[in-house]
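Batch manifest line 456
LIGAND: 4-fluoro-L-phenylalanine
JOB: complex structure
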Amino acid sequence: MKKDMHQKREGFSSSIGVIAAVLGSAVGLGNIWKFPYVTGANGGAAFILVYLLCVALVGLPVMLAEHLIGRHTKSNAVGAFKKLEPRRPWFLVGGAGVLSAFLIMAFYTSVAGWVYAYIFKSAGGMLISTKPEDTSLVFTTLVSGVTEPLFWQIVVLLVTGTIIMAGVTKGIERVTKILMPILFILLIIIDIRSLTLPGAAEGLSFLFKPDFSKITVGVILAALGLAFFKLSVGMGAMITYGSYIDKNENLPKMAIKVALADTLVSLMAGIAIFPAVFAFGFKPDVGPKLLFVIIPTVFNSMPFGRIFMVFFFVLTAIAATGAMLSLLEVIIAYSTEQYQWTRRKATLLTILAIGLLGSTATLSNSILAQFTVFGKTFFDFYDFATSNVLLPVGGIFIALFVGWQWGHTNVKREMSNEGQLKNDGLVRVYMVLIKYVVPIAIVLVLLVGLKILQFE
Ligand code: PFF
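JOB STATUS: finished
ARTIFACT:
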């Protein structure tokens, strides 16, 4: 048993590896698909400002909280709470996190499947039109099918499952280390193209000129939910990754770097998309299909566009895959450590379960379209229930746990690497954030935001 535990606690092998993996979790479909369309649906710049506040004041402190208890306990999301408070039901917070991982994976693998499919569609010349109606049709045909989207969802699960089975260092770390720099370079290239389109200015002002009349409580809830989803916090993914982080790593510094880099990638995705949206006469509020319709039209209007488009979807696929690795790892770390399953068994059973649940998300664009939960299709329900409810609620409890239960002395010890780093002032500011600002802000937004939803 002891030996078993040691084998499982592989850990990331270098600082670069840690950043790559954590950033690999944060950067994903959230940046390239969700951030642009949610921003588009909520009025642009004013939404982004609220989002940035949510990241700085809520998302970042929760990320750090998760890293602190993850690294300290060297445990999965459930085990961490059990180790620190064996006699109280705090482990349920981790349990809700594992559930969230399943629910997010259900719709995330569906969208990732569309992205994988687009690699082949763009390479095979099925997306060569510069007319939005044509690219729109390709998308609608894909998602409203049955076997094609299910097939791609299964491919996604097999790919992520294979990497996860290879382990933390050889799987997760190795893959994310290659992906991140390439993704960044490609985004720069696409940004340049988008910015030089005639009519790009309108898109930029949509992104950067706030109109505060657009801010409602619904918008604030959307921004908070997106901040949680984006940074992969509120569900123990960062506890799990935290448990693989070396004890000499400067945790606050790393969390700040990750949050900044992640935000930068989101903004760069916005710059890639919105100038093109306006230049091609689209509406910014078309929802989830934004990426799948706009990006092909942009690429098709540039020299060597087809090659770039293939690259773009390859990289989006890899970014999505990096994020899914962390979602899967939440479940795998939990089941291997709490039930002593082998990594192989855990992975196979998990992807099977996600495949079944995920098919209901995928088919909610076709044969399950008329089935709704709280007035939402399965796809939308999994998305809403996690981003706007489970993750923020998880965030409240993680903050309360670290701020009030675990407390200042323990936080200080872990955050300063047992006194090696001199960051007392930072710890004090952090305690105020995690004890008061984070829980109060989330509770307020949830109360008002969810009540409003009942009236809508
Ligand atoms: N942060 C990922 C994204 O923005 O695509 C999504 C995600 C990954 C959410 C891992 C939650 C998580 F645990």
